[in-house]
Amino acid sequence: MIVGVLIAATLVLRGLGGLGVRRFASWAVSAAHGLAVMLLLTASAHFVPASVTVMPNHADLVRIVPPFVPYADAMVYLTGVLELLGALGLVLTATRWAAGWSLATLFVVMLPANVYAATEQVAFANGAPATPLWQRIPEQVLYLAVAVWAARSAPRTPIRRLLHPAATLQPQPEAKPQPEPEAKPQAEPESVR
């Protein structure tokens, strides 16, 4: 379902681009915004009370945190906040590069929770099983790829230049040697004549 949100949002936004909305004139920007829409949905689950069972809730997400991660409850809140900040960063042109790379890192860091949920067969409060690995790992790779695509398509902004100065270096053309100007004969001073 979550992949469907990413795909549908991206297609709708790109369709708006086709209708003349300049912000969504490229697939990369539309996908960045589509990922932001998806993250708003997934981040909301981090804050949903346990009494809500129509979608994954905070208690469900705490259960999928591997035992080696300390402060599972706080980590779920933290990752929810990071997802919200990442979504905001993706829609702001000036921060898209940093947000894309930060989210790519977050997707890698959060993968062990999904692996743990699948291998330990953690069930959610609504009775739904955790997403099986054969489905979840390709999904995570897709999210990571879209985040990197968004980052790489971001314009050269001050944040990008600050955090990644090599990305702004442009190859300089070789300087052609300039011929030295010919020396003009100097006129003799009148006192010498």
From TrEMBL:
Task: Please list where the region (Disordered) is annotated.
Answer: 165-193
State the superkingdom.
Answer: Bacteria
Record carries keyword Transmembrane helix: yes
Alphabetical keyword list:
Membrane, Transmembrane, Transmembrane helix
Kindly list the residue ranges recorded as spanning the membrane: 27-48, 68-92, 98-117
Renumbered to this chain, the Basic and acidic residues biased-composition regions fall at: 177-193
Q: Which PANTHER family match?
A: DOXX FAMILY MEMBRANE PROTEIN, MEMBRANE PROTEIN-RELATED
Return the protein name.
DoxX family protein
